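During the second year of the project, the team shifted from modelling isolated chains to modelling whole assemblies. The rationale, set out in the original proposal, was that interfaces cannot be judged from single-chain predictions alone. As a representative example for this report, we include one of the complexes processed in the last quarter. Its constituent sequences, exactly as entered into the pipeline, are reproduced here:
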Amino acid sequence: MYTLGIDIGSASSKAVILKDGTDVVASAVVQVGTGTSGPGRVLEEVFSNVDLTQEDMDYTVATGYGRFSVENADKQLSEITCHAKGIFHLVPSARTIIDIGGQDAKAIQLDNKGNILKFVMNDKCAAGTGRFLDVMSRVLEVPLDQMGKVHFQAKEWAQVSSTCTVFAESEVISQLSKGLPRESIVAGVHQSVASKACSLAYRIGVKNDVVMCGGVAQNAGVVDAIEKELQQSITVAPHPQITGALGAALMAYEELKKQNK
Amino acid sequence: MRTAKEIINEFKAIADNPRKAMDDYKKETGKGAVGIMPVYCPEEIVHAAGYLPIGMWGAQKKQISKARTYLPPFACSIMQSVMELQLEGVYDDLEAVIFSVPCDTLKCMSQKWNRPVPAIVFTHPQNRKIAKDAANVFAREEFNIVKEKLEDILDVHISNKAIKNSIAVYNENRAACREFSDVAAEYAAVVTPSDRHAVIKARWFMEKSRHTALVKELIAALKAEPAPEFKGKKIIVTGIQVEPYDVLDIFQENGFAIVADDLAQETRNFRQDVPDDDDALMALARAWNEFDGCSLATDANKPKGQMIIDAVKKYGADAVVVCMMKFCDPEEFDYPILLQEFEAAGVKNLYIEVDQESTAFEQVKTRIQTFAEIL
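Output from the structure prediction step:
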C-alpha cells in the first residue's frame, strides 16, 4: 500500500512516497515552491527514483501553502498538522517543534501521543524566516549553503534587527560599510532569526525535547543561535526539509486505514 | 413570506452600502445622518433627535495611502481606514461625528478630525467600577454635553421623553439581536458566519426599529423550517471585529459555526439593556458603568475571560477564537490574561490577527485549518 505526501511551500516543493505507513521508498526536494514549476518537477523526480506512478498511490495528501493547487490530492491538510505528524514519527520524544520555512516560522507543542496541544505562527512578516536568510545571503555575498560554516568563524556576533527584513538589510549594509567582519554579521543574522523563532516557542512554552525542522534547520548557524537563545541543546530532525511531506504521507496512510475499516 | 436567504441578502446589501442607507433615510425623513465612531456611543441621543446614527467602522480591503500622512503605521486598521475615508471626503455629508475616546488612538483621531463636519468628543469615566455614583454623574454630564452639542448642530430640541422612547426602541432591538444570535446558533447549518455578521453589522446603518422588524422577520423565516443538524464545530469569537468577510468564509470552509460572539462591533452592544430611569441620560450613564467585558471599558477585575468561559458553557462551544485587531493595544494587553484563564478552564483557543487592509489570507487559512484538524 503506497501513500504520497506532497508539501508545496513558498520556497520549495517536497514529496515523500511511503510504503505501508512505515517505509520511505522515495523522497524528493525541488528548490522552488508554489506557483512555479516546483510542484510538477518534484512529482516527476520522486517517481523517477522508483518504479511507481501516481496511479500506484492509494492515497495522496497535499500540504504547505500550495496545498490547494495540487491536482490528484485526495485531501489537503495544513503544514502544521503534517510537520507535527512527521516529526513525532521520527523523534517520538519531541514536545516542542520549531519549524522555519521559506516565508513563515511556527512553534508547535505536542503531547506524549503526538497530538498538537498549541501552535503559533509568525505574523505577516519575512523577518525570522528563510526569506530573511535569502536576502541576507545576497547582501553578504555568502552562498546560503555556506552561511552555517561562516557562522562558526565569528569571534563576536554583530547585532541585527529582528523586526523587519528591509530594515535589517539596510542595517547589514551599514555594518558592512563600517568594516565589520562578514562572519560576525552572518552570526548576527542567525541570532536575529533565532530570536524571532524563539519568541514563538516562548509563547507556547518550551518543553523538551525541542526539535527543529523546515529548510532553515539545515543551517547549523541558526541551530547554534537557537541553542544559545534557549540555553539548551535541540535536535535537528533527520531530513528536516521533508518532515512536512513525510507527515502528509503518514496522514494519507491513516486516512486510508480509516476508509478501509 | 420571504425566505431566510432573501432576508439575509437584504441585510448584506445594507451592510455593504452604508452610503445608500444614509441617502435612503434622508429621502424618507428629510433628515440626515450622524457618524458614530467606534465604540460605545450613546446612540439613543442621536436617534431621539430623529437623525440616523451611522457606524463608522472603516472599509474592508481599503488600500491605505493618504492616512499614512497623519497616522503612525501602528494605529489599528479601523482607524487607518477611517482616516483614509475621511481624507477622501466620504464622511462630508454627515451632520456631525461623535467620538468616544476609550483608547489612545481614538483620543488622537478625535483631535485630528479636520473636515467640515463637526466632531463631538466625549469621555467615558475610568472610575466606573470603583466610584460608581461619581462615575454615573460624570458620564451623565458627558452625555448631556453630547446632547447639547447635537441640539446646536442639528437645530433641534432633544427631550428627556424622546431619549426614553429611543432607549425603548434600542432595548427592543437589543433583545431581537440577542434572540437572533441564539437562533443563528441553533440554525448553524443554515446561517453561515458571514450571514450572521451581515445581519448584526447592518444594525449600524439602519434606524433601529427597522432593523428590529427585519431581524424578527428573519427569525420567523428561520423557525418556519426545522433546524438541520450541524455537523461541524462551534466557536465563539472575541475581539473588536471580524472582517474582511474572507476570514468569516474561511471559518465556514473549515466547518466552523459562530454560535456567539464577544465583539465590540457585535454582541457587546446588545448583551445588556439600558436600565429604566426617569432621567434618560442617567439611564445611559448607568448602562455604561454597568457594562462589562471589553478591553476598552476599564475594569481592574478583568471579568472578560470568565464571561467568555461562561458563554462557552452556555452555548456548548468547542473553542474560542481570539480575533486580535492588529495594533489594538487594549485588546493585546488583555490577551495574556485571557490565555491563562482559557487554559486554566480547559477552553481550547486559537489566536488570529484581524487587519481590515488584508487582501491575502493564507496565514489565517493555515491557522484555522490546523485548528479544525486538531479540535
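The domain at 93-236 of chain A is CATH 3.30.420.40 (Nucleotidyltransferase; domain 5). Chain A touches chain B at residues 65, 76-81, 104, 115-116, 119-121, 123-124 (CB under 8 Å).
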